[in-house]
Write a sequence for this structure.
């Protein structure tokens, strides 16, 4: 961990030690820290604008319009190279799409990568998703946040305390961290002093209103089940170590009808490295 990240995490370390957690346990937990981008919708502020919620939907010519509503676009060139530990493309845009409601057979969203310099055209944002109860869907989509996204860059520590053991039948504390529950409680107490509140996050660790297992694990199991049921094209590794969190969106404060929902976009590491962003899978946690 570099010095700046360690300094940012000092409130966490100081509180953990003050609560009597042995220094070796605290230091071992700190090795799990990952950099992330915290994105806040704000028209004014000192933080750089790196994207926006909503806005025109600009897709490369020939790319089908996603069947999910448009959430946000991120300008990758506006992110520092070390903003995350993900192998993101150095430029171009990432476009995120989702319905923030659980779907047990399919991905709940998509990601589109628009390379720098690609020829794009503007699409109707309500073209392909407003089937069924059109009025309810339009009302929900009308409540999606809009406006510029300002970025701050922060360390992220796990919010989860347990992992699923091989075989999927039992769970255990995060390997090598028997004090995980105490350390997560300290993180929950101190993270507001470290990370400003935001509604969209790139990289880092997943969070949601009720966390026990890593939400990435749940997303992986959902992806595997979707492949098995024919609702999503594989392959999908069943090993969470083969996946990373691409982005989290806490939609619950904004989206009508799905208060308390969080969207997790995950992707297999090899797909991200190969820039197959269309292979991202979205899973939704909903705690009404």
């Amino acid at each position: 961990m570099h010095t700046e990240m360690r300094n940012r995490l000092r409130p966490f370390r100081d509180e953990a030690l003050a609560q009597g957690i042995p220094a070796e346990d605290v230091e071992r937990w700190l090795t799990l820290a990952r950099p992330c981008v915290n994105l806040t919708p704000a028209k004014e502020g000192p933080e750089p604008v790196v994207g926006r919620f909503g806005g025109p939907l600009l897709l490369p010519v020939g790319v089908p319009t996603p069947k999910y509503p448009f959430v946000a676009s991120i300008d990758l060139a506006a992110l520092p190279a070390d903003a995350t530990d993900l192998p993101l493309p150095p430029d171009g845009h990432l476009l995120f799409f989702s319905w923030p409601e659980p779907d047990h057979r399919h991905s709940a969203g998509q990601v589109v990568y628009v390379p720098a310099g690609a020829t794009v055209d503007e699409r109707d944002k309500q073209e392909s998703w407003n089937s069924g109860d059109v009025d309810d869907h339009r009302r929900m989509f009308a409540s999606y946040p809009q406006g510029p996204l300002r970025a701050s860059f922060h360390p992220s520590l796990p919010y989860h305390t347990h992992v699923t053991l091989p075989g999927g039948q039992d769970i255990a504390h995060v390997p090598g961290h028997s004090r995980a529950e105490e350390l997560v409680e300290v993180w929950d107490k101190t993270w507001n002093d470290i990370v400003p509140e935001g509604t969209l996050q790139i990289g880092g660790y997943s969070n949601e209103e009720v966390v026990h297992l890593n939400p990435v694990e749940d997303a992986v199991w959902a992806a595997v089940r979707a492949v098995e049921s024919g609702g999503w094209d594989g392959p999908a590794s069943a090993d969470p170590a083969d996946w990373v969190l691409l982005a989290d969106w806490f939609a619950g404060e904004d989206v009508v009808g799905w208060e308390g929902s969080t969207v997790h976009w995950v992707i297999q590491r090899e797909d991200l490295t190969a820039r197959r962003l269309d292979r991202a899978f979205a899973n939704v946690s909903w705690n009404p």
